Amino acid sequence: MDTKRIFETVDMINHENLDLRTITMGISLLDCIDQDSDVACQKNLR
């Protein structure tokens, strides 16, 4: 891992008050979106 990227991450945590999990997980929930909540829940189970 590049040292510069590590320091950028530490800087984001300190200056933006970010939770470390928001930086490391990188989960996209766009596939779960639906107008119908029941359909959205079913998409999550696949």
* SS-based class: mainly alpha
Strand content: under 5%
Taken from the alpha-carbon principal axes, the silhouette is: elongated
Strand elements, count:
0
Q: Give the terminus-to-terminus CA distance.
A: 33 Å
List the helices and strands and how they pair.
Blueprint: H1 3-16, H2 20-24, H3 37-45
Textual characterization of the structure:
The protein is mostly helical and 46 residues long. The mean pLDDT is 77. The protein contains three helices and no strands. It is elongated, with a radius of gyration of 16 Å. It has one domain (3-45). The relative contact order is 0.10.
Any descriptors?
mainly alpha, 46 residues
Outline of this structure?
The protein is mainly alpha-helical. It contains 3 helices and no strands.
